[in-house]
Amino acid sequence: MTTQNTDLIRTDLTPLIATQLEANISDLISGKFSNEIGELLEQRGVVAFRELNLTDEQQLAFTQTLNTTDIQDYKVTKITMDPLENPNADYIKGAFYWHIDGTMLDIPVFASVMSSRRLSETGGRTEFSNTYAAYDALPEDEKAALEGLQVVHMFETSQLYVNPEPSIETLKMWQSFQPNVLPLVWTHRSGRKSLVLGSTASHIEGMSLREGRALLTKLRDWATQPEFVYSHEWKLGDLVIWDNTGTMHRATPYPLDSGRLMYRTQIAGDEPFM
Ligand code: OGA
Ligand code: MN
Question: What CA–CA distance (Å, rounded) separates 57 from 51?
Answer without folding.
Answer: 16
